[in-house]
């Protein structure tokens, strides 16, 4: 009952704060304010944990889940997994003509700083706080679907005011991507119990969308993005239904492989 209450309260406050910040941004005609919404999940997790579990809880959330022994394969997969799928989608669109493959931009600053801050601002809330509580009530697949829906609709206020979300696509298509991305990140978290891997995966995803020619606002077409969605769907189907059937059954304790 306590975990159900925490899930509902955290999700409600996260959605509410995101909506409030975006509303203020819209009313003041200051689009820069909307970026503050990306910090709400981790800040909420910090406040709630500090109030209810004190310093020990905060340490477990922000330190113990970050600084821990994690196999290098999970760290690498977290960071480059989604960019590799994005690159494959680009190459498919280009008929695998490598000579035509290019990045959208080669500029590192300030994009990479913003990408890192976004990941830090969100992941201690979504994966550090909310996902473990969902996993105590549901299997990983259902936990990821629920979290993906919450995470996806958390972006909706920003979508309404034209900030921080791909605008040249239907929001439901974007929501589909968020759910697939959640399945990917949750799968890695299941085996590492590390927010660091979640942060790296979030960084990898945002870097892919910033530097690769995937989004329609950069390509003028939805084709590459749909190919990307197709490959992500196939990969997640393999992970959840072929090689890791335990992920769609009852909850199991997180294990390391």
Describe the structure in your own words.
By secondary structure, this protein is mainly α. The protein has 10 helices and no strands.
Please give the structural blueprint.
Blueprint lengths: L1 H26 L12 H25 L7 H22 L17 H25 L4 H15 L1 H5 L10 H22 L2 H17 L4 H4 L3 H21 L14
Helix pairs in contact: 1-2, 2-4, 3-7, 3-8, 3-10, 4-5, 4-8, 5-7, 7-8, 7-10
Average the pLDDT over all residues and give the rounded result: 90
Low-confidence stretches: 251-257
Order of helices and strands: HHHHHHHHHH
Indicate the radius of gyration in whole angstroms.
18 Å
In what range is the share of β-strand residues?
Answer: under 5%
- Subunit organisation of the chains: single chain
Q: Using the alpha-carbon principal axes, give the shape.
A: globular
Please give a quick description of this structure.
It is built from ten helices and no strands.
Which key features would you list for this structure?
257 residues, mainly alpha, 10 helices
């Amino acid at each position: 009952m306590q975990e159900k209450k925490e899930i509902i309260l955290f999700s409600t406050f996260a959605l509410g704060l995101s909506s409030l910040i975006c509303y203020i941004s819209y009313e003041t005609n200051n689009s820069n304010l909307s970026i503050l919404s990306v910090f709400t999940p981790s800040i909420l997790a910090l406040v709630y944990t500090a109030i209810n579990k004190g310093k020990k809880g905060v340490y477990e959330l922000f330190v113990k889940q970050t600084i821990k022994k994690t196999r290098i394969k999970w760290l690498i997969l977290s960071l480059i997994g989604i960019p590799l799928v994005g690159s494959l989608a680009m190459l498919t669109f280009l008929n695998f003509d490598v000579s035509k493959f290019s990045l959208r931009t080669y500029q590192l600053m300030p994009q990479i700083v913003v990408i890192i801050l976004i990941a830090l601002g969100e992941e201690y809330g979504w994966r550090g706080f909310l996902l473990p509580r969902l996993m105590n009530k549901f299997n990983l697949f259902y936990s990821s679907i629920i979290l993906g829906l919450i995470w996806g609709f958390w972006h909706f206020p920003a979508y309404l005011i034209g900030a921080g979300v791909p605008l040249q696509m239907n929001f439901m298509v974007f929501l589909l991507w968020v759910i697939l991305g959640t399945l990917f990140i949750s799968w890695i978290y299941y085996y590492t119990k590390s927010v660091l891997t979640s942060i790296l995966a979030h960084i990898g995803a945002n870097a892919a969308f910033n530097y690769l020619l995937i989004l329609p606002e950069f390509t003028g077409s939805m084709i590459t993005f749909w190919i990307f969605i197709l490959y992500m769907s196939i990969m997640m189907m393999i992970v959840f239904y072929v090689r890791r059937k335990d992920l769609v059954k009852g909850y199991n304790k997180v294990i390391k492989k």
